[in-house]
Amino acid sequence: MAMANSLCYAGPFPVKTPSKQSPVQLPGACVVRRSLPYLKFTARPASSSPPAVVVASASTVEAEPQAKSPTPPKVLPFRVGHGFDLHRLEPGYPLIIGGINIPHDRGCEAHSDGDVLLHCVVDAILGALGLPDIGQIFPDTDPKWKGAPSSVFMKEAVRLMNEAGYELGNLDSTLILQRPKLSPHKEAIRANLCELLGADPSVVNLKAKTHEKVDSLGENRSIAAHTVVLLVRK
Ligand SMILES: [Zn+2]
User: Where is each 2-C-methyl-D-erythritol 2,4-cyclodiphosphate synthase domain found (predicted)?
Assistant: First the structure.
């Protein structure tokens, strides 16, 4: 996943916080009273009205008053997101796909467990929510994510989705790798993905294809994944 230390983000809708806590209202005048585990909210400079989100290792949430937006944020009945990820394959590393350890002669060299599928699913959910990408929310420059199981990122993405008032409509993922064959492992991967998402198997689809021996993907030197999600307003 991409490296980044900071980001600017203006969410398209108010993010609901867990019960008993005040909402974190992203657009317009912003009042934030609670602590979020990974995100810090600060004012976006210049003309844009919504506050920006800045990644922080600290758990504090800060916000400054903003000029009121001329139009209210749209609360859409559906939101679509796309995720993409690619990792280099190197000998001596485990190959973890969708939380399942796949026997292979090499695996992903990455700061976390290098789970290309979970990373791109997280990115698709974050993208649908109009949030920054996984590399910005969980920067690989932060030692706390070193070797972290990607299920941690998934749980956070699902939490953000729920707090925003959405649930998974359906998800379609495509893995691209030359070797090994994924068909013996596909159902285990999909079952684990469903569990992490809290989703019925009927709305979680997983496909795999080779890269026709072309480029690094086709030469067993990398692995990639695409995911599209549809989120539905609860
Ligand atoms: Zn990744």
Answer: 78-231
